[in-house]
Amino acid sequence: MTKPSNATADYRARDAAHHIHAFSDMKSLNAEGSRVIVRAEGSWIWDSEGNRILDGMSGLWCVNIGHGRKEIAEAVQRQMADFSFYNTFFKSTHPPAIALAEKLAEITPPQFNRVFFVGSGSEANDTVIRMVRHYWASLGQPNKTVLIARKNAYHGSTMGGGSLGGMTSIHSQGGLPIPGIHHIAQPYWFGEGGEMSEAEFGNFAARELEKAIDEIGEDNIAAFVAEPIQGAGGVIIPPATYWPEVKRILAQRDILLVADEVITGFGRTGNWFGSETFGIEPDLMSIAKGISSGYLPIGGVMVSDKVADVLYDAGEFHHGFTYSAHPVTAAAALENLRIIEDEKLVDRVRDDIGPYLQQGWRALGDHPLVGEARMTGLMGAIELVPKKPSRAAKFADTGKVGTIARDISLANNLVMRAVRDSLIIAPPLTLSHDEADQLLASARKTLDDTQAELKRLGLL
Ligand SMILES: *Cc1c(COP(=O)(O)O)cnc(C)c1O
């Protein structure tokens, strides 16, 4: 590795001295040194060494409109000039909260006309846990408290969100999960489908929900919570049979359905919401990330009329955050939604850049290292395998090969994220065709380079 510039060395030393990073092993990170991002525009980021890198992950699944949009900065400045903060606790409201709530009611599916604002996806899911339990208690069914979620789901990192999520690494620290959360199998055919066809496995995974309901008892269950497509779990796109079968099961049971749309919302899958892409009709939706394209932190829970009407009859909901409906974050979100609408980014993902990138991405499936290349809208994964076409054979020491490939991708000026031994992408919805070509070329070179490196290391 070349020696970092003095500026980078200085940044790294100060960062190492004082900054505890999210989801990081700080000792090994500090030994290696962080990449310092100093600029971003459109689909690109620049580090302090002058490298220009294609941001294949939209920051962290959030920068749907691309980086560096001046309109958002101006909207934020305008709002700050009026006022930067007032709360919504004590019989107060303000224009940005009103306009954003109204806009969300317009763009979400018809059952949604009301929103509870929060500051993040984790807070949205913590709100969901409290809200669904409060809903059933208000209906005189206080025993309906259990939330069913899936293994390897990601719902955030607070006590509630981390518990609802099905990540064993998160559960292993800090006394999670909290009581009353039950995890069932995920619809991950490539990794767990065994001898079943995709269609069979989709039905099987959905019926795990039915089994859990029968075991726990419908009278004890508040809600089923799921991402339409699991994001952080590795862009797990369920088989086509999965959601229809879940729908059939829930139609026979009195259990709420919650869609965690924190990633799949705001155009990512080629519709405004992933629920529309999969024909799901949730009672609640968690939203964050793309709502503001990450320019400022804001999230929410969309509440269907069915649930809201009960809650409104039940008096005060003892819940909220200082920054619920923060006026400046709401102004940023509103401007972001204006851009998504005016530039027809949702249609663009469905009809133009989505199909274009998907075609090139699926063609990576030809590569000898790739067991499957899948993508819906603009979120995709490639599964790296040692013995193609076997799905069963895996690399030893899960995650090692994925990390090697991820680092090689960065060296090829493309941000891809490693999940186990797969590589995932979720580029900005503004990605141009030319940038898509560059992304695909870097991804293919990464696969070639990774294959060579694995042979050199004796791992292949
Ligand atoms: C990122 C994410 C969250 C958590 O959002 P934060 O803003 O990081 O708290 C929740 N659910 C899903 C599906 C996510 O991808």
Radius of gyration: 22 Å
Q: Count the helices. How many?
A: 18
Mean pLDDT: 97
**What characterizes the major β-sheet?**
7 strands, mixed
Name the ligand types: pyridoxal-5'-phosphate
What CATH architecture label of the largest domain applies? Answer: 3-Layer(aba) Sandwich
Derived from helix and strand composition plus strand pairing, the structural class reads alpha/beta
Global outline: globular
Low-confidence stretches: none
Binned, the helix content reads 40-55%
CATH superfamily of the largest domain: Type I PLP-dependent aspartate aminotransferase-like (Major domain)
Number of domain modules? 2
N→C terminal distance: 24 Å
Question: Which topology of the largest domain does CATH recognise?
Answer: Aspartate Aminotransferase, domain 2
State the total count of DSSP E strands.
14
Account of the protein in words:
This protein has two domains: 35-65 and 346-457, Alpha-Beta Complex (Aspartate Aminotransferase, domain 1), CATH 3.90.1150.10; 71-342, 3-Layer(aba) Sandwich (Aspartate Aminotransferase, domain 2). Helix 10 runs parallel beside helix 11 and helix 16 (353-363) runs parallel beside helix 18. The chain has 460 residues and is of the alpha/beta class. It contains 18 helices and 14 strands. The chain is 42% helix and 15% strand. The strands form three sheets. A seven-stranded mixed beta sheet has the order 4-10-9-8-7-5-6, with helices on both faces. The two termini are 24 Å apart. Bound molecules: pyridoxal-5'-phosphate (PLP). The site of pyridoxal-5'-phosphate has 16 residues, from helix 6. Belongs to the class-III pyridoxal-phosphate-dependent aminotransferase family. Keywords: Aminotransferase, Coiled coil, Pyridoxal phosphate, Transferase. It comes from Kaistia defluvii. This is Putrescine aminotransferase. Its cofactor is pyridoxal 5'-phosphate.
